Each structure stands twice: as structure tokens, then as C-alpha cells.
Amino acid sequence: MIHINKLIMRSQIQERVIELVRSFLNTNLKNWTVLTNPSPLISVKRKAVRMGIWWRMQPLKRALLDATIMFLRRGGVVRAVRLINMIKEIVQELLTYILSRKVVFVAYLVGKELVRRFREYLGIVNDVKYIIHLGIQWLNTPLIYRGP
Known about the structure:
Elements: H1 2-28, H2 39-51, H3 59-73, H4 81-99, H5 103-117, H6 119-122, H7 128-140
């Protein structure tokens, strides 16, 4: 019974980490209005292929991103709002899975969440290294001892 509870808690933690990464990306990918440069899309695609995430995506999403990259390489400009939103969702999905595998980034997000929760005890913390330190401490704490 305890083993099943640990698995449930781990899956909840993984879902929470993915939520944190998505909320971080939502705030940082807001200002896409016109796409003219293919290099950010190419770099995200390369990293996804390297990490094996690219082939787990739906073929339609892969094809849309490939077609957009080819169109932008040939000098085109993407102005359609719906198409930009679709590409933004694809990039966000790829970056979510890429960044959720980076321990330092996950530790930073978890530490930031801890600082937000315990602001009255910790005060204002701006040191990135300390935030990562808090996140790594929390990630290394056994599930039994973690608070809600």
C-alpha cells in the first residue's frame, strides 16, 4: 500500500513540475506577434531530436513546425494569429518536455515556488543560487517528510 502511495505522490510531483514549466513558458512566450526568424524554431527542433522528444510528438505537429521552418528559411513572414498560436503551443510543448528534464531548471522553479510559499519566513530572496539550493534540498527530501 505504501508503494502505491509513493507512486501516486511521484506522479503528482511530476505533474506539478510540468505545470510550473508551462506557467514559466507562458509568461515568456507572450510577445510572439510576427515570425520572421527561423533560428529559434530550428534550435528547439534540434534539441528535441537530440533528446528523443521529437518522435513522440504527433506527426501533424511535427509537419507544421517543419513547414513553418522551411517557409521562414525561404524568406517568408508568418503573420496569421492562429498559425502563430499553434506554433507557440508546439514550441511550448517541446520546451516543457525539454526543460522538465533539466534538474537545475526544475530545482530553480521548485525553489521559486518555495520562496513564494514561505515568503514570511524567508523574506525577499533574489539570489538565484540560493533559490536553486532550496529547490535541490526539497527535491532530495524523501516523500514521507515533505509537507503538503
